[in-house]
Structures are given as C-alpha cells and as structure tokens.
Design brief:
The complex is a heterodimer of chains A (about 475) and B (about 100). By secondary structure, chain A is α/β, with parallel strands linked by helices. Helix content of chain A is about 40%, strand content about 10%. Chain A has one domain: Amidase signature (AS) enzymes (Alpha-Beta Complex). Chain A has an eleven-stranded mixed beta sheet with strand order 1-3-2-4-6-5-10-11-9-7-8, sandwiched between helices. In chain A, helix 2 runs antiparallel to helix 3, helix 7 packs antiparallel against helix 15 and helix 9 packs across helix 12. Chain B is mainly alpha-helical and about 100 residues long. Chain B has a domain of about 35 residues: Histone, subunit A, CATH 1.10.20. In chain B, about 35% of the residues lie in helices and about 5% in strands. Chain B starts with a helix and ends in a 10-residue tail after the last strand. Classes of the chains: A alpha/beta (about 475), B mainly alpha (about 100). Chains A and B meet through helix 9, helix 10, helix 11, helix 12 and helix 13 of A and helix 1, helix 2 and helix 3 of B.
C-alpha cells in the first residue's frame, strides 16, 4: 500500500508538474505509468467507468510539444486527473452512474474540464459514482460498486467513490468530485485521502449534471493538502455561464498552505464528534491536540442546531432533485423506452432508467413539494437552513475554523447498508451543515481506526475561507500519526 | 402525517414512475422512516425565521445582448432517441388518437 499524505512531494501533482514543466520528465511517461497502474488493478476496484487512453496520450503529446517549444503548459502540466462521471466531457460518455444516461456523449465540456486542459492537466478517465450522486457508498451505481483500495471488502464512500479510490490507489495524484451533502469529503475520509468542498459559487457548476442545485459544488480530491490547494486554485473562479458563480476572483491558496496555524482560533465542535464511533472521536481529539501544539488557540464549542441538518437536507436535496431530474423524459437524450403516448413513454423510460435510490429521492422530493405538505416539510426545512446558517455565523464570532469528524465511522462492509436508506443517510450527518450554509470544508486523513482503516478529520471555515482552511488542514496533515496503513 | 400507500402511488404517478405492488410496499416503509426522522424538524417552531432557498444572495445576471455561438444543432440532435426534420420526435401527447 502506498503511503499517503506525508510521503513528501515525490509522486505528488506538484512534483510531477514541476518535472514536466522543466523538461526533466515527459507528460507521456506519466500518462503511461498511470494507465499501467489502472490496467493492473482497476479490474479489482472498478474506480473508472471509462479510461481515456488515446485521448490522454494525445493530450500528453501536446503538453510535451509545448515544453519542447519553450512554452509553459501550465500549473498542472502533465498531471493525470480522474473526473467524476457527472462532469460533462464533449464527445466522451458521461453517465452519472445511471442507465438513463448510458452512452450519452455531451455536446460540450464542463467549465472545470476546460480549466484543467488550459492548465496542462490530462483527463485520464471518468470515475464511478452513486447514480446522480445520490448515495454514500458508490453502491448505487448502475455499473457496479467501487471497492475501497485500503480493504476491498469495504465501501469507498460516496458519491465520489470512484475519484477517491483512484487517488487512494495511486492511479492518479488528483481527482475531481462533487459534494452535495458530503460526497467529496466522506469518500476521501473512508479512502484515506484529502477531499475539499469549496464555498458555494467558487467553482463553476456549468457542465456538472445537476442533483440539488443550491447545494452542489465541485471540488478537489488529492493525496496531499498542497495538491488539493493546487487543483482548487486551477478550477476556482468566476464563470459567466453559471449564474450562481461568485463574481470575485479568489486569492490563490497554494502560496499560503504552509503558513501554519499559529494564533488561529480552532473550535472543536462537539456536535461533529460526540455521535461518532470512539476510534473516530479519538483521532479528532488528537488532531485538536496537534493544532494546539502548533500554536493554534483551541477551544470546545457546541452548535446544537447542526442536529437538525440531516432532516432538513433529506427534504431539500430530494425536492431539488425531483425537479432537476424531470428532464430525463426520453425526448432529447439518454434512454427511451417506447410507449403509445408521451406519458406512457416518459413513465416507461424513467422506470427502466432510474435505480431504486433515485426513485426514492424523486418520490420523497415530489411528496415534500406537493400540495398540503409543502409548508410542513419543504418550507420548514428551508427555515432550518436559515437556522443552521445563523448558528454558523454565531460560531464564527468566536473561532476562525471548526474541527470535527468527517464521517461517523470508518469504511463499512460492502452491502451492509444498501437495504436501509436511513442508515446510509446517517453517514452524511457531519458533512451536511457546510452544504446547507454553502461554506468550505475539507477532510484530511489522520491515522487509522479499528481494523487499520483510515480516519478523516474535517476542518470547516466560513464562506470564502479556503486559504485558512488549507493552512489548518496542512498542519493536521503534518501531524497525522504514522504507522501501518496510515 | 403518516405517509400512506396511496400517497406513494400518487407521488409515483406525479414523478412518472411505475411501481410494482412489492415496490409500493417497500418504498412506503422506507420513505416513512425518512419522514419519521424529519419529524424533529417539522415539530420546531421556526415561524420567526425566513426560509432560505440558497446559501448566497442570488441576483439576476445579465449580459449584453450580443449574438454568440450556441450548441451545434446536428451534434445535439445526434443524442436524441428519434428525430425527424431536425426536430425531436415524440409519441402523441395527450388525448386519444384521432
């Protein structure tokens, strides 16, 4: 097993890009290595739905030609990146893990895909995910589950489980995921890698297939905090094609990632620790102690309103999903199952194309939005969202960042929770508050728990607080326990 | 407000999903569990709070009304299950056949 997080810079995206930019190493070589690693082990893991061999080689050749001609291909020169399969790639299949989009080739690239190409990165393939990003284990994919590279009997988390597994297995140094209720951070925690959800609006959602539009955000998955900051800096920025894209130009975060935690006020959030398994809670406490040793001002804090986040999320996200997924009607793209009239065709198509979890959420959302229940469920959940946002504001009057667990447990057995939706939803209890508030948060690997499985510690920051978030995360990473499996 | 079997049948129809009897039973039980959990939220007195639909203040975004290239028509239609004369072809919508 490759060691991660504290392995130095060899094998990191930063090191690879520096070597390619200076001509010490070819992009071609890096891509061949990545493709060989995937060929050797992904039959077992199923992290990738599609591997873009020819396209990746062609892009590597363009990068190498640019270097040979004296041009700088960009900050991610020659770095292979895994793309979650809900990111549109022009002419390349994009399925969202669903049979209803099987074989669909988008007519345009997502803005983040364009940004990666401009930065010299190489899209190595599209990764497995829970169907339409609905799930916490990648078992809801129509194309079979992904296994956790740390222990192939365990789930990798989800919904960005393919991207997290691809990074954890060492196939690629970087991956992109999307996070609606924890779908970057939770799989990162379960696979032992870094996963970060940016502030809502920081990264363009243009070309991200919509799940719950007020919560969805694209973000980086990486083996190290510095690599996650590097990738975030490349994909962040205003995009006129996303009307919720923030107008401000974000400050680069990579430059300050090693600035330390001296004087930063850290609130250990009891509500993001106390309900967790003892092995997870113990690691959060050790991370807090490490931050105190590094000069941070650590205190305990309670935000009891977070307790209502899960219920609110599982009304708001399904409600938005029920609306967003109405577009899968068998008319313009994707699956069609024929019927005598349009309604019969729509129904037959959706019944055959959607899996059980998507059906559950679409029905739940339709119910929460329907006459007679709208006020009691949907509007009430939106008021809880206000409650949680105000609670965050109050907490950030006394601390700069919050610290807690990312997921309540380490990786669980494949199949353990597939028949119990509520048990599956509980995985998201620590990550949901940041989606409701639109704030940034990151999961950092911090040692292992029972069975030698990775534990993720979560750092949360206020809106636009990505720089301080990465600084604190880097200190946590630097003090992570070493040992077998870590 | 306990979710009934009939509620599930009704909602499935609205969402254009066909369910077998066994699925109606299963989804009724599973959705009830989720809604039971949401009872904690439904019971809160939050009349003093405004609902939030978004994490940031949304505003209309305008751009100058200059023509710009759009998606290629043939490329878009190539993804459709059936097309006719550069248009999406669908089965009859509503009513009985003439």
């Amino acid at each position: 097993m490759s060691s991660l997080g504290t392995a130095g810079t060899s094998g990191t995206a930063l090191a690879l890009a520096a070597q390619v930019r200076s001509g010490q190493r070819s992009a071609h070589e890096g891509v061949e290595e990545a493709l060989a690693a995937v060929a050797a082990r992904d039959g077992e893991l199923n992290a990738f739905l599609v591997v873009l061999g020819d396209e990746a080689r062609a892009q590597a050749d363009r990068v190498d030609a640019a270097v040979a001609a004296g041009h700088d291909p960009g900050p991610l020169a020659g770095v292979p990146v895994a793309l979650k399969d809900n990111l549109c790639t022009r002419g390349t299949v994009t399925t969202c893990g669903s049979k209803i989009l099987e074989g669909w080739r988008p007519p345009y690239d997502a803005t983040v895909v364009e940004a990666l190409r401009r930065a010299g990165a190489i899209a190595l393939g599209k990764t497995n995910m829970d169907e339409f990003a609905m799930g916490s284990s990648t078992e809801n994919s129509a194309f079979g589950p992904t296994c956790n590279p740390r222990d192939t009997g365990k789930v990798p988390g989800g919904s960005s489980g393919g991207s997290a597994a691809a990074v954890a297995a060492g196939f690629v140094p970087l991956g992109l995921g999307s996070d609606t209720g924890g779908s970057i951070r939770q799989p990162a925690a379960l696979c032992g890698v870094v996963g970060m959800k940016p502030t809502y609006g920081r990264v363009s959602r243009y070309g991200l297939v919509a799940f719950a539009s007020s919560l969805d955000q694209i973000g980086p998955i990486a083996a190290t905090v510095a690599d996650a900051a590097l990738l975030f800096d490349v994909v962040a920025g205003h995009d006129p094609r996303d009307s919720t894209s923030l107008p401000s130009v974000p400050e680069p975060t990579l430059a300050s990632v090693h600035a330390g935690a001296e004087g930063i006020r850290v609130g250990v959030c009891r509500d993001l620790v106390d309900g967790c398994a003892p092995d997870v809670a113990a690691r959060v406490q050790e991370a807090a102690d490490a931050l105190a040793d590094a000069g941070a001002k650590v205190e305990e804090i309670s935000v009891p309103e977070f307790a209502y986040g899960l219920s609110a999320y599982y009304l708001i996200a399904p409600a938005e999903a029920s609306s967003n997924l109405a577009r899968y009607d068998g008319v313009r793209y994707g699956l069609r199952v024929d019927g005598e009239d349009a309604e019969v065709m729509n129904t037959a198509t959706r019944t055959a194309g959607f899996g059980a979890e998507v059906k559950r959420r679409v029905m739940l959302g339709t119910y929460a939005l329907s006459a007679g229940y709208y006020d009691a469920y949907y509007a009430q959940a939106q008021r809880v969202r206000t409650l949680v946002m105000r609670a965050f504001d109050r907490a950030y009057e006394s601390v700069d960042v919050l610290l807690g667990a990312t997921a309540p447990t380490t990786a669980f057995d494949l199949g353990a929770k597939v028949d119990d939706p509520m048990a599956m939803y509980m995985n998201d209890v620590c990550t949901i508050p940041s989606n409701l508030s639109g704030h940034p948060a990151v999961s950092v690997p911090f040692g292992t728990g029972a069975g030698g499985l990775p534990v993720g510690v979560q750092v949360l920051a206020p809106a636009l607080g990505e720089a301080v978030l990465f600084r604190v995360a880097r200190v946590v990473e630097a003090h992570a326990p070493q040992g077998p499996g870590s | 407000m306990t979710l009934s079997r009939d509620d599930v049948v009704h909602v499935a129809r609205l969402a254009r999903l066909a369910l077998s009897d066994a699925e109606v039973e299963l989804f009724t039980a599973q959705l009830r569990t989720v809604l039971d959990h949401a009872a904690d939220v439904a019971a809160l007195d939050l009349a003093h709070l405004e609902p939030s639909s978004h994490p940031i203040a949304l505003q209309n975004v305008l751009r100058p009304d200059d023509p710009q290239p759009s998606l290629d028509r043939d490329e878009v239609l190539a993804a459709a299950p059936t097309v006719e004369d550069h248009r999406f072809r669908v089965p009859r919508i509503g009513g009985a056949a003439p």
